[in-house]
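User: For my dataset I need records formatted as: sequence, then structure tokens, nothing else. Please produce one.
Assistant:
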Amino acid sequence: FRHFSPNPFQAFSYSSFVIISLIIGVSAKHLLKVSP
């Protein structure tokens, strides 16, 4: 995709990326806490 001035799709993809990274971080912490 070419980068245009901020459009809804770009904002949605950015927010979904942030949410996914947060979920991955929390699940990684949980796995590290559970593993011996």
